[in-house]
Amino acid sequence: MKAAKPLPPYLVRRYQGWKATTYSENSTWYKHLANEGQHPRAMVISCCDSRVHVTSIFGADTGEFFIHRNIANLVPGYEPDGAQHGTSAAVEYAVTALKVAHLIVLGHSSCGGVAGCMAMCSGHAPELLEKSSFVGRWMDILKPGYEKVKDEPDPETRQRMLEKEAVLTSLNNLMDFPFVREAVEAQSLSLHGLWTEIGAGALEYYDPAKGGFYPV
Amino acid sequence: MKAAKPLPPYLVRRYQGWKATTYSENSTWYKHLANEGQHPRAMVISCCDSRVHVTSIFGADTGEFFIHRNIANLVPGYEPDGAQHGTSAAVEYAVTALKVAHLIVLGHSSCGGVAGCMAMCSGHAPELLEKSSFVGRWMDILKPGYEKVKDEPDPETRQRMLEKEAVLTSLNNLMDFPFVREAVEAQSLSLHGLWTEIGAGALEYYDPAKGGFYPV
Amino acid sequence: MKAAKPLPPYLVRRYQGWKATTYSENSTWYKHLANEGQHPRAMVISCCDSRVHVTSIFGADTGEFFIHRNIANLVPGYEPDGAQHGTSAAVEYAVTALKVAHLIVLGHSSCGGVAGCMAMCSGHAPELLEKSSFVGRWMDILKPGYEKVKDEPDPETRQRMLEKEAVLTSLNNLMDFPFVREAVEAQSLSLHGLWTEIGAGALEYYDPAKGGFYPV
Amino acid sequence: MKAAKPLPPYLVRRYQGWKATTYSENSTWYKHLANEGQHPRAMVISCCDSRVHVTSIFGADTGEFFIHRNIANLVPGYEPDGAQHGTSAAVEYAVTALKVAHLIVLGHSSCGGVAGCMAMCSGHAPELLEKSSFVGRWMDILKPGYEKVKDEPDPETRQRMLEKEAVLTSLNNLMDFPFVREAVEAQSLSLHGLWTEIGAGALEYYDPAKGGFYPV
């Protein structure tokens, strides 16, 4: 590994500032976390998007959430085929090893991955159709969701509908994982679908009784 | 999707507190992020572990880092085979669409995924060898790293060595992605390898000249 | 332009040192800034004083803050009269072209411009009253502020009060610029008033609810 | 002043980190600066652009440079008309009160103000011609410079030529200020013209003997 560079100086200074303040004032808690291991109450699956920080929205401290972040907060289908499935591995670890009580899928507005899926499915992004497009192939997970929303004429509304379909697709796929289904049926795990609007700071949850997303 | 539950009340209350305080006092920034889009400076690949919050260590606010989190902060090999590769999709999006300037891989102490890899490779976790084990198959990425450290007699030292091998494996695999290599060679992207010790709040970086990890 | 001289050797050497180290190690970021343009989150208006480095206090790197510096961090009144207003031009560019989310006015202790204003207004600096005094005419902006603090008997306290009035005068004047007012009312821009004490490294912010400056 | 908001939390945390590290380790220097006043060796006039930090390029610490920053690092003509001239006030203070030894004008690549001037002068930005455009009226200072470069066919070359004309215009205008000319003639002040290329980290200075800019 010849290519690695030292950390940019501004991050070194900021780290040293954190070490001298936040870490220093809370070192007992960090030592506790190191010695006793993690016992997170929930797993969150959210997007890599830099604008979505679930720990901020929920005032969560170090140790509270086990967090997997990928493009468009998607969970693929259950495929125990021996191939490398990073999202499935994270879910398996959270549910079977950490035994989290909650599994939260958090979608968001202005999602670039969802916008890419929409462009791809409507014929406006041929490059995403290529076999070598990792983003395109990843967004294939949401293709069935696109079929449900494609007739909505307003593009902004369609984008939001598809962002929420991404959350529902993930929740549905999760229920196909035997260890998830068993934990849910044993009432040792509950699933939650959320969608946040970045600009307004709004948060909606999926209500299966009403079949839609509503403000929390 | 019948199984979804409303958000636990403690999270609803915390969200409402955030909305009334942090969001309310900084709504201009959230609106700016929604209207102007994200321009993160760096992508960070870190572990799902609840004890590792890169935004805290670096005093980073919403919008600064594009963050992918998976088990043991691993990047798999470059496989443009048309299958779903979530990590590869996140890297592709960050490098080709967002054009981030830095790609940081952050490993950490007491990593459960790395411990699992060690147990599996040394014959103490047969369940991880099963084809259906998502964690096991994911940790296969680190098998070559295990070969390099397996002769270290002290188990704690061996674990740390393997945690650092996870960072190096990811950095090496990243360089096999054509769009990463091209951006690195064009000096529009730099790679960085880090490892943090949770209890001591320490941070080390990989120095290719010395061939090891050193305090920042 | 006959008068220009080459750079003093000590600055040449330091530049070459920077080029060989900081620039070289972070060239990807500089190239990124050059290719992708600037997206600063905030504009800062601070004093030319060599002792006040806002980037240092806030651990800010290249690219984070759009910075205007003038004597005593003053914003003049809104005067769209076709004359050359450098401060107003900087504010206009930051708010309408760059669409910054924050506009921070940073005052400081031991401000020479503020001391000059005090001397001028109290009759101890007749040279500053002359039409040709650029510093005097510039400090006229703060004359109404002097009226508010002139009865304070302790000179040191009076100086600090006037330094803080300089911040408030600038904030008030900013709200008279239509594009600032509109952005503030649309919640796409927030204003912040700060004052720093150089020797103690202290930082205070203006709290409109309490009507004064308080430690951050 | 009702509109002021508290500082965003990320800046509060970073300030506290600076206070606990950089300030704490150098408090004697900050106290010295507060007690003994500033004695900067040079004044720098540079652009507000977030990508141009002269203290970084020259490894300058707190107290070294008296810095005025405005759009496109321009010095207007000498006009002792009793109106508010912020740039002229800063120059007057640096030369007559602080008696700096060097006055450095630093231009840079990709300057948005210069690009605006080019667009305005070539008829592509009618909004900048309006009387109420502060940026437009400020960039009027550079109109004579545009006349000198307008026949260059390549737009990128033309932009760079005009960026350098901005530096020369400022140096020429400075020499019209009596206190600047006197100090230069008394050899107690030297003027310097610089231009930096952001992406390459290059630095050029104006050589009056050769009549052009050359690498330092």
Automatic annotation (TrEMBL), chains A, B, C, D:
Keywords: Lyase, Metal-binding, Zinc. The keyword Membrane does not apply. Its EC number is 4.2.1.1. Pfam families: Pro_CA. It is an enzyme of class 4 (lyase). Its cofactor is Zn(2+). One of its GO terms (molecular function) is carbonate dehydratase activity. Gene3D superfamilies: Carbonic anhydrase (3.40.1050.10). Coiled coil: none annotated. SUPFAM superfamilies: beta-carbonic anhydrase, cab (SSF53056). GO terms for biological process: carbon utilization. Belongs to the beta-class carbonic anhydrase family. PANTHER family: CARBONIC ANHYDRASE (PTHR11002). Reversible hydration of carbon dioxide. This is Carbonic anhydrase. It comes from Thalassococcus profundi.
